[in-house]
Every structure is written in structure tokens, then in C-alpha cells.
Amino acid sequence: MNISKFRDLTFIDINNDQIMVIACDSAGAIGNKEMDIVKVEPDIVGYFTAQVALMEILAIGAEPITIVNTLSVEMDNTGKRIIEGIKRATEPLNFPNTEIITGSTEENFPAYQTGIGLTIIGIIEKKSWNPPKTIANTLAVVVGIPKVGNEVIKDKGREVLSIPHLLELKHNPDVYEILPVGSKGILHELKEMARTNGLGFCLDDEMSLDIEKSAGPATCAIISINEKEYNNLKNNFPIPVEKIGRFIEN
User: Fold this and answer.
1) Which residues pair with 199 in a beta bridge?
2) Under a CB-based contact definition with an 8 Å cutoff, are residues 143 and 165 in contact?
3) Is the pTM of this model over 0.85?
4) Are β-strands 101-104 and 63-71 bridged in parallel, bridged antiparallel, or unpaired?
5) Same-domain status, 38 and 94
6) Are residues 103 and 176 in the same domain?
7) Domain range for residue 221?
8) Does 6 lie in the same domain as 117?
9) 141: part of which helix (H) or strand (E)?
10) Is 119 among the domain residues?
11) What per-residue confidence (pLDDT) applies to 203?
12) Distance (Å, rounded) from C-alpha 46 to C-alpha 86?
């Protein structure tokens, strides 16, 4: 059995036909409990935490098969509400979420601050998998706006990436690769995207985005895209699209 890391994902080569892919995310001090710093309803915490790991699994081309939530809160009722949010995040994927979601809660001691860990397991079918690959001279483009904390709550879906947005990007043949951006920011993920494709990159001299700011629960993604498709995507996509540079030969 071969185990390898690819960016934030773990790949496990389990047999001749399949690869298991593992993604995870966590959130702490975000919720409606006494000691939470960012005040928000528990289902929102579950929704965005699940969305991060789901987008990582989907972007690489795997199919989610199991969602494991490890909640540092009681089941009744904070845990139940977090799980409601997790289920809502899975709705665009049309699979039986009540059967694939499992997990654990804290029932021994009272919790005064919300904590959640989430792991998603996906499967890649080797015969049908086309690994995402960025090529030289394609554009580096950010879809969505980096936001964190209360900015995400106030946005109400106007400028942040969602799973339906990601699925739309995946169906565009001129989008070669999608990399969700999290707390490390756009610039970090841009470097990773270039490195794992054996490429370099050059940044545009002027851009409106803060490329070092945390994107919180993957509120934006970097994509590599054919230059001829850029204006069409920018003018027709429901959330902001901005070119930040170009991938080049090393």
C-alpha cells in the first residue's frame, strides 16, 4: 500500500483500480457558545467546515464516500445543528448524506466553546481519472474574494466560493485546475500550484486582491485557465473573477 501527500490531501493507493483520498478541516471558537469569539449559529459552522474539505476532494477529481465529524460539543442540540449544516453542504452533490455521515460528540463534560474537526474520505477510480494539470502560459485567476470570520457571515454568498460554483468550474473544459484557498492565503496556494506542476509564475503589477490575506473557509479558489476563456468567465460568473498573473516555464 502506497501512501503519499499532495498539498493538503493524503493519497492511499489501496488497490489496482482505486486511490483513497483524505481531506480534513477544523474550526474552533466559532459558534454560539459562551466563549466563542466569532458568534454564529452552529449550522453555519458545520456548513462551512464541511464545504472546505468537500471542495478539496472534488477539486482533485475524487468522489466523497464518507464524512466523519469529531465534535467537541454535546449532541443535543449544538451537535445536531452542526450536522444539519454538514448535510446542507452536501446537497449539491445528490448523495445519501444520512448514510455516509458518521462521527462523535462530547457527552462527558459541558463545553463552553465550539470545536469541530471534520474528515472526508473520497475515492478516485484510476481508469477514469484525469489528474488536474496546469500548463505553462495559462492564466492564474482567483474566483471569489478572500474573507474570514464575520466577513464570511456578512457576505451572504455574494462574493464567496461555494460548491455549486466549484462544480460549474469543473465542467468548464478551459479550466485546467482548481485549488481552493484557505487560511494560508492566495499567494501560498499559488506557489503550491506552480510547484506541483513544475512551473513558475509571474504576478500582475496591479490587482485589487490581498493575496496574503486568509480566505477563511475556502471563500475563493485559484484556477488555471485558457486565456481565451478568461473574459467570458469574468463577465458571466456569479461571483468575482480576477486575473492575478500567469504560469510560466521554470
Assistant:
1) 249
2) yes
3) yes
4) parallel
5) yes
6) no
7) 139-249
8) yes
9) strand 139-144
10) yes
11) 97
12) 5
